[in-house]
Amino acid sequence: MRHDAPHKLPPTSLRARMTVGFALWFSVIGFLGCGLFYAWSCQIARRDISERVRAAARLVALEWQIDAQEKSATKALREAEEDMRLDNVAIFIVDDSGAVLGSNRTAVLSVSDMRRHRWIIAEWKTPSANVVAGMDWRATEAVLQKQALMLTAFALALSGAGTVAAWFLVGKTLRPIGVLADQAGVASADPLQARLQAPSNDAEVQHLVETLNGFLERFQQNTRAREQFYAAAAHELRTPLAVLSGGIELALSRPRITDDYVETLRDLQGETKRLIALSEALLTLNRLQTEVGAEEPEPVDIGSECERVLSALAPIIEKKRLIVSIKGGRECTETLAPLSQVTVLLRNLLENAAKYTPVGGAIRIVVETSATAICLRVHNDYPMADALPLDRFYEPFFRADPSRSLQGGNGLGLAICRRLAELHRWDLQHTSTDDTVIVQCVFHRWFFTPDTLF
Known about the structure:
Layout: H1 14-66, H2 73-83, E1 90-94, E2 100-103, H3 111-116, E3 119-125, E4 130-136, H4 137-187, H5 203-252, H6 258-290, E5 298-301, H7 302-312, H8 314-319, E6 323-328, E7 334-337, H9 339-356, E8 362-369, E9 373-381, H10 413-424, E10 427-432, E11 436-444
Parallel strand pairs: 6-8
Antiparallel strand pairs: 1-2, 1-4, 3-4, 5-7, 8-9, 9-11, 10-11
Helix pairs in contact: 1-2, 1-4, 5-6, 6-10, 7-9, 9-10
């Protein structure tokens, strides 16, 4: 069955998207401002007109009451016009029956017409007549709409100018990113020597360049370490393979008696075991680097595991007549970790101590506990221990004593221990005195981790 490839979205321009965002923002702000200004202007205009027509109706009513005996609408309107301008105000004096007694408008216009055409009207009652004043709202509204259109046009022009300014401003702001991309493209030809230069003095750009250079530095260090590891692994694998190949060729060079073949096969078997142990150590180290969290943690008793590992190392201890003592470890010394990984770490540490300790020497194991941690210290005798390069102990394939290779060591034990300590955030370190090597590993109690306290 054919499956179509997933649709890949085309790349978009950050500069274009930011410019469009600024343009939309300017437009929204502009139109919102125009709308609010128009609504506010209409409210203010309505209030002013309402106050004006109310004042006009009241003034005419007062003039009408002053001349109540004459009841002359024309005189009342003339007196009112002398006190205030009534050019745009229509005034009607009507009696209780609705008949118009007087008006300042010569054109045919009635009160009902004013109400129908959305005029703003105010009424003032007197004992003998009602005064109705009104102004045409449509004229005022047309003026306000014209002003709003002019303001909108200005807002659009301002938004366009802001968009153009945003295009250039965003381009200038993002220019260092383009420069860094060009530098990275040129430096990709030799990534192990790559370094980026800050294209500006801006704090953000400087911080970005420092972060990228730090990442490149760590990448380069990891790459060099891996290259050294692969070279050392190839060298370590080549030695037993060369021995196997040479032994087989020698055995096949001429006919031999059975005893010669048996002796050769025994030698080859020893090299094969060494090759298998080296391969298993390489696989273990690689698994620890790529399969973090693959095993479920469980409570593991450090004291009990030390005793179990020492039982497995009994042949070496008896052969070298070593004096082994354990202090502590009787109380609860449980940590939370995969059992196999704790066993690997303890076996490598104790096996190293047994192999390095001279014949008849002593190994002292101390297990101490606190509220949150378990401290394991292994002391083993070693002549001139203070001259050992302790800082290189955790390098893969490093051997402080060349004779260690003759005892089956491959130089990966402490590298595996270091990786396990890093995974579980245990504190692992080597120290030494005149004639003693001390390795200390601090485990977390099973109920306590750096992130959680139950």
